[in-house]
Design goal:
The structure is a single chain. The longest helix is centred in the last third of the chain and has 20 residues. Helix 1 links the parallel strand 1 and strand 2. The radius of gyration is 17 Å and the shape is globular. Strands 2-1-3-4 form a four-stranded parallel beta sheet, sandwiched between helices. Strands 6-5-7-8 form a four-stranded parallel beta sheet, sandwiched between helices. By secondary structure, the protein is of the alpha/beta class. The chain is built from nine helices and eight strands.
């Protein structure tokens, strides 16, 4: 079966674009995928500590542009601006999927003690609040420990992805020994670490696969509705 739908991904970085395309095309043959990327969003949010009004305005415009491009679904692919998707979802008429939302639900279902790890402080708040929101719906109280590996971000910014990965893997292995119920990687870019986390007993959650699986499920349901 071919899935003749059009996905537009809103990005704050050019990283992992090929991985996203490969995963979606594998599960949704015939899908069309386009990207709108603004690499200035992350630096603006980082400088202000939260999404500013100009950031929100730009992302609303990008969502409207995606709709004008004929998008059947918009994927918000960055956790740092995940909450901005709530603004533009009310402006456009096409479905919006936040890539970290399924992971947040999964984390809340595990509950208890959760370690949140990120390389940017601006990614922690949205991830924590999303998990807390699901936790409240489930009547669960969740305790968080937050870890920011700023040196990993600096290594990645300098083009040293190997060092970025080494720093984060070492941190996750330390967290693994501290008795958490789950370790949540607050940025989708951390997906690259998963193959090297062998031996880690604590569940490590990443939004890449769960987020894209939500997109796949949504597109399949849309196609089923079309054939009714």
């Amino acid at each position: 079966m071919e899935y003749k739908k059009h996905i537009v991904v809103l990005q704050t970085s050019f990283a992992k674009r090929e991985d996203t395309i490969a995963y979606l095309e594998k599960h949704l043959p015939g899908i069309r995928i386009d990207f709108i990327t603004d690499s200035s969003l992350l630096s603006d949010v980082r400088q202000a500590g939260e999404p500013t009004q100009p950031v929100i305005q730009r992302m609303v415009l990008y969502a409207m542009a995606a709709e004008a491009m004929g998008a059947d679904l918009i994927l918000n692919s960055c956790s740092t601006v995940g909450e901005v998707a709530d603004f533009y979802a009310s402006v456009v008429s096409v479905p919006v999927v936040k890539i970290d939302d399924p992971m947040a639900k999964q984390a809340a279902e595990i509950g208890g003690k959760i370690a949140l790890i990120a390389t940017l402080p601006t990614a922690l708040g949205p991830s924590r609040r999303a998990i807390e929101r699901y936790g409240r719906k489930m009547g669960r109280e969740i305790k968080f420990t937050e870890l920011i590996d700023q040196s990993a971000w600096e290594a990645l910014s300098a083009g040293d992805s190997k060092r970025h990965n080494e720093i984060l893997i070492a941190s996750i292995r330390k967290l693994d020994a501290q008795g958490y119920d789950a370790i949540v990687m607050a940025q989708v870019s951390m997906r690259a670490l998963l193959p090297d986390l062998t031996g880690v007993k604590t569940p490590v959650l990443c939004s890449f696969y769960t987020g894209l699986d939500a997109v796949i499920e949504k597109v399949k349901k849309m196609c089923e509705e079309d054939h009714k």
